[in-house]
Design a protein that fits this description.
The structure is a homodimer of 321-residue chains. Helices cover 31% and strands 25% of the residues of chain A. The first copy, chain A, has 321 residues and is of the alpha+beta class.
Chain lengths: 321, 321
């Protein structure tokens, strides 16, 4: 097996691959969004996730508290996808000069309150941070946890079944509403503004035999490709099985980025009975959507017919005003 | 003792204090630049340090490799100041759109090579990262290490002597040359572009009884104030004892930021003989510059006479083009 796990397609991944190849043995094995570090009897899981105004959020779409929550959720979701238990986060915060029109506003403090709230919701704390002046708001979150039995994206085997947590497509629907200046309220706003990293679910799946685990922050279609490439299996996903947010069709649901749900391979013996107990424990469904086989890549089907699906979501986009 | 250690003066510190007060028990104890986390038998030291184009570096002053080295050194220096042993770093890299005038240039890869080189120089590795599109270059480094016997900035006692590693003022001299468009070459360029985090020296000082330790990235005068406030001691520093870079006077030397040397309180019994062995081991001097007493704050003297010294270096400045 090569030192560096194969990554899927995409501009960001091509660039990361080029950089890590150049670093040689000064870099650890690259593969998952989360790095694993063994120290004596402890395995650490650490991940860093940078949110930048205009690329990952807009200040006219979300409150600063919501911006902080989402930035924290993105990093903590990487821990969830290892089956790790969060310890805490470190946060670099970039703040532009404010115009003093609202002298009582304190965006930096609001952002940190959001990061702290999502971190506390999964049992962690804010451990430290850095504060800089920047042109745009910037929230970089490094999440740190322990992973006694980490699950990588590379362990799926032919014959495993493929499952997904939650319902997909809400994030994309919310973005479409925001882009056309429609209000975001109720469950859809909660889904977009306060996504819940599946930390407890990830630990449960790791304890119940998960062979491969990944979060679908890049969208199901893109991240399924990463899991397939890392595990050296082919995936077949039945679109009609994909659990969709109300009003969202399966093709949109699998292209929806920033979902922060988990895609998991489980042995065939993992039963429907266990899956039925999942919503009671974690508040969201666990749905079987496909199988792992020999071959490569991801094939989507609709009632048995192969269907073309748009490529995944690539954050490596231009800042937009 | 209050949960949050007293911090010294400065805009950044006032803002951090306000933010951490608001977070309440969702935040860990704030005090040092480095957070300590106890996991079973392991104590982790973690620190995050964000470098932003126009605030912390300019691309016409340094190569991208040098920019990466300096960004990594800043975070690793925080580990040195705990007496910690680095494990590795995670890096968020923000890259502006390039103009393709030099199609073979790869700033992102050059920056990461610099971060990797300084990390490797102290025994660590690049563990992971994130890559985003941004308006300006951005290098945020989270450094992770282990600290079996961490030394905080809060342990100095009246009667301890105050020492500093290296010679001070080179970074400020280099900045003055760069700001007036003079070339930076030889030892002065090396000092500015490739600062060496005092990791091995920090571990040695921790093992030899250091009661308080801080790096002087904010300048000796500013960081001495932080050490005094956290330790609840008064410091007296003799300017004529401060080891100065050739051509730099002591008043400039103590105001010079980004020095990445260590200021350390050691029991009075720590002898000159041990200090004389320091340069052979670490390549730089260890110089006694003052004493810790009762009282508060920092008093600078020149041959016994009190001298006013400019305030420390505050990074929380505007981006400059």
């Amino acid at each position: 097996m090569p030192r560096h796990l194969p990554l899927g397609a995409g501009g960001e991944f091509d660039r990361l691959r080029a950089i890590f190849t150049r670093l040689g043995d000064a870099a650890a094995e690259l593969g998952d969004d989360c790095a694993l570090v063994s120290l004596d009897d402890v395995t650490l899981a650490v991940s860093i996730d940078c949110s930048y105004e205009g690329v990952h959020f807009r200040t006219d779409w979300l409150s600063f508290e919501e911006i902080g929550w989402r930035a924290g959720a993105a990093a903590l979701s990487d821990l969830a996808a290892e089956g790790a238990k969060p310890v805490g986060v470190l946060v670099s915060l970039g703040l532009p000069k404010t115009d003093n029109r609202e002298p009582k506003a304190d965006p930096g403090s609001d952002i940190m309150a959001g990061v702290a709230a999502v971190t506390k919701s999964v049992g962690g704390r804010v451990l430290g941070g850095d504060l800089i002046r920047a042109d745009r708001y910037l929230v970089d979150v490094c999440a740190l946890g322990t992973a006694p039995h980490p699950v990588r994206r590379a362990g799926a085997r032919p014959g495993d079944a493929l499952w997904v947590t939650g319902t997909l497509g809400g994030a994309r629907l919310a973005l479409q509403r925001l882009k056309t200046s429609r209000p975001l309220e109720g469950p859809l706003r909660a889904r977009f503004a306060h996504p819940e990293p599946r930390v407890a679910a990830g630990q449960w799946l790791a304890a119940h035999g998960a062979t491969a685990l990944i979060d679908i922050s890049d969208g199901l279609s893109g991240d399924a490709g990463h899991l397939a490439a890392a595990s050296r299996v082919g995936l077949e996903i039945a679109l009609e099985q994909v659990p969709c947010w109300p009003g969202v069709d399966p093709l949109s649901a699998v292209a929806s980025g920033e979902e922060y749900e988990l895609l998991v391979a489980l042995p065939a013996a993992f039963g429907d009975a266990r899956a039925r107990s999942f919503p009671q424990q974690f508040g969201v469904p666990l749905t079987r959507i496909g199988v792992c086989g020999t071959g490569t890549g991801v094939r989507f089907t609709d009632r048995g017919q192969t269907v073309a699906v748009p490529a995944g979501y690539d954050h490596f986009a231009e800042p937009t005003p």
